[in-house]
């Protein structure tokens, strides 16, 4: 059985057939007739040797106005006896089909005439798929040789294999591949899919100008930015490759951070060499800078963050290893028409001031044309704000009397890398709203290998984590990734976080800190259960509060903070509607404390929490301050043990309207801690 892969949409414009290299089945919700074309002729592409077996690749000959999803392969030199697939090219105008943006070489064979034969996989635009393959005897295929189908039209269910003799001329099921890596002419465990209704298909309108949906006032330290690691190392030797998409394709698919490694280009005084270790990857000007400039010219709402680092060989030098920093400034940054932003950038810099620019992330100690140190763009932050653990640890297993067997053949610690990503993510959350810029590399390697395996696992888990968060707060982090296309939807997750928090029409309620209840941080204390969310009446906002705390109990059990009550009122008038969540009942209340004047609601808080005391007396939360638009608001309390958290602010344009608290119930003769954690709810005002 030799199968050609494909997808099919439930529209009259697409016919069905058998496609190349299958490991999963796809079926329409009901039989679909061929559109106009009841039979096919085929043109031979090449005959080649596949592991000792002779096979022939064929190209279906289609009617005018139709396109194919892939080539057909048969055993020996037999001409296919079944119908194939055609796509009505009118659907290119309906966002249902698209041309590939590039191709990836899968494998090379020896042709019957001694010439090489190559198998290529189409690389589709974001949210489009093609599981078919093309065979060529010369160069890479043209992007208009084959077509991709909108991914949102496909969903999985169970199914079975079909061989070619089971396929009827006009009504039949569809074969395709859902494996992580294609197996040439083999059979994996199949998965059959049926089509989603066209009405349920939804895709982001554009990845090329998503920053245009954000407010100019948005601080860049509050934007979640998808990026790539070693952005220039695309479709190259396995020793150096980290990307499939070219820099141009990365930008088109929503990437806004490029990690660029450079050295002087041998024999050139007007360009630099893209590098990844020993790998020399081509012209920086042609492959990166010119593409970025053109992209920003067409999409002036966007900002490209470009990390530049001097890269040198670790083992063998095959050319220049220097980096003329003064020439880089003179030729690329200094000119009046340069798009590099020539001032200092921090996390507080607003998006509106940077649109259409390249923001340099300086990892090479930038100098001007006179070799004098300069301070532009973003200085690479101190290590606390970066997670870049790029070495994967190997795992070991016990082999009895022979001791331990260790190495990548046993296993690599991908979960350990993800834990580092998650820990850094939590740090960024705990410090949201600060002027810092957080960078969290998901990429890692073991001896210059296994990058794609790491990307699939770590990026996949990161996407699930981001999707589980409540909408409305962007975590303000740059995520440089390897192979982001291997995790469909991860770029969407990052972009949507920013748009939901800072979009021009964002009205989503936001919890601060914005995390699921099972993702506990030091701000949430250590013990107890979360109560119910309490919210102000409609059109009212928190403008005051009082605290209940227990005085010091000497040798007896201390509980410190027990309750927090918030007072709500309209923005421009007084009122005292009281709201509260879970609480304990030890201690006394402070005096009521209010923000001064009108239009001065609460927009943030911080909390003082005592660390765990081991065998000592635990108290957890001791104090809470609120932050009005005009400044800090404090209530009196009876204890002051612990440390203050970072201030948790509502997104710009939002104010506090609700509260939820975490309280430990009475412990009897054991240690009581009462109130442990607080979260506030923000809405537009």
Automatic annotation (TrEMBL):
InterPro entries cross-referenced by the UniProt entry: PLC-like_Pdiesterase_TIM-brl, PLipase_C_PInositol-sp_X_dom, VOMI, VOMI_sf
Domain Phosphatidylinositol-specific phospholipase C X: residue ranges: 216-363
Chemical reaction(s) catalysed: a 1,2-diacyl-sn-glycero-3-phospho-(1D-myo-inositol) = 1D-myo-inositol 1,2-cyclic phosphate + a 1,2-diacyl-sn-glycerol
BP GO annotations: lipid metabolic process
Signal peptide coordinates: 1-27
Name of the protein: 1-phosphatidylinositol phosphodiesterase
Keywords, in A-Z order: Signal
GO cellular component, one term: extracellular space
Gene Ontology MF terms: phosphatidylinositol diacylglycerol-lyase activity; phosphoric diester hydrolase activity
EC number(s) on file: 4.6.1.13
Organism whose genome encodes this protein: Aeromonas cavernicola
